[in-house]
Amino acid sequence: MEGYIKPPVEIRYADELKVLAENDKGRRPENWKLSPAAVRTFIIGGTVETPEGEVKISRKFYGNDALVERAVITLAGSRGLMLVGEPGTAKTMLSELLSAACCGCSTNTVQGTAGTTEDMIKYSWNYALLLSKGPCREALVPSPLLIGMEKGIFARFEEITRTPAEIQDSLISVMSDQILNIPELGDEGLVLARPGFNIIGTANTRDKGVNEMSGALKRRFNFETVKPVGDVRLEKKIIIQEAENMAAAGHIDMPVDADIAELLAVTYHELREGRTAEGTAVEKPNAVMSTAEAVSVYFQTLSHAWYYGGGRIEPAVLTQSLVGAVCKENKDDLGKLRAYFNTVSKEESKAGGLWKEYLNSSKLLN
Ligand SMILES: Nc1ncnc2c1ncn2[C@@H]1O[C@H](COP(=O)(O)OP(=O)(O)OP(=O)(O)O)[C@@H](O)[C@H]1O
Ligand SMILES: [Mg+2]
Fold this sequence. Notes:
17 helices, binds adenosine-5'-triphosphate
C-alpha cells in the first residue's frame, strides 16, 4: 500500500489473506476469518492450493513454529494469550499477525504505560455529548476491549506490565465472566462478549519500571515465552528480509548486502551468547542485543550508504551505527564492544575480506 509508512498487517498482506480465506478448507472457530491451519500458514509460510495452482505464502515469524500453533489454539479457547520475553523478540509482531489473520484487525489495541487508566481499558465518555444528552450509548467512548467484545474480535494489550497492577486487574472480571457492565447505562449497560473475542497481551521481561501481574490475572492467560532467534543464519535472513521491506517502504532502491548482514548477525549472536563461534568467552553488554535492534542498525547503515555513501555499504559505517545501538544504556558497553572486536580479530574464521575491514574499524569505538 503506497503512501503510508507502515500499514497494518491486514492491509500489507491483504492479498495473502484473501488467497488463504478463499481456499481455506479447515475447521474455523466461530467468527474467525481463517482456520487455525490457515493462520499457521500465514505466519510461518507455506503454500496454498488454489484452482489456478499453488500460491506461495511468505514466512513472517521465524523460530518456534510449535509456539505459533499453541498461541492459535489458546486464542480459539476462552483464556487469553500472553506473549512474554526479552525486548525485540517479535512479540508485538506476532500479536499483530495473529490478530490480522484470526479476526482481520490488528489495530484494536491498548498501549500499556505507567499512565494507562481504567477508562482506557473499559470505557470513557464524550463529555460534550454526556452533558447535552446524559449517559447514553452515543456518548460512550468504547475502549478496544469493549470493541473486541462487541465485534467478536481480539483486543491487543501491549506492554501490559508497564500499567500499574491494580489497573491491569480491571481485566479480570471481563476475562472471567465475558461481561462488562456499564452501570451509567442502566438496563442497556450490560455488554456480553461475542464469540471470537479474546485478549492478546505482550510483556517485556527485561525492562525497568515493570509491574508484576497479579496471580488472579496470570491465571486467566496462557503464557508463551518468545525467545531470541538462536541461529545465526536465521538471524541474517531476518535482517535481510526486514531491511528489504524497510528499504522498499523508504524508496531506497539499493540491494541489501548479505555479507554485511552476516557481519551484523554474527556480532549480535556472539555478544548475546557471550561466546564467539570458536568458543572464546566474551563479556555480554548490558544493552539488549535483540534481532529488532540488529535490523535497525542494518537499516541505518543502508540508509547512510544510500544518502551519503554512493551505494556501497561500508563496514566502518556499520561499526559506527553499532556504537549508538549498543552503548545507549551503559557506558561500559563500549569497552565490551572493543574487547569483542579485539577477541574476534584473532579468530581464523574472521580473518579475511569484509571481516578484516570491519575489525580494522575498531578505532571508531570510542
Ligand atoms: N523470530 C523472529 N521472526 C521474524 N522477525 C523477527 C524475529 N525476532 C525479531 N524479529 C524482527 O524484530 C522485530 C521485532 O519487533 P517487535 O516490536 O515485534 O518485538 P517485541 O518483542 O515486541 O519488542 P519489545 O519488547 O521491545 O516491544 C520484528 O519486526 C522483526 O523485524
Ligand atoms: Mg513490543
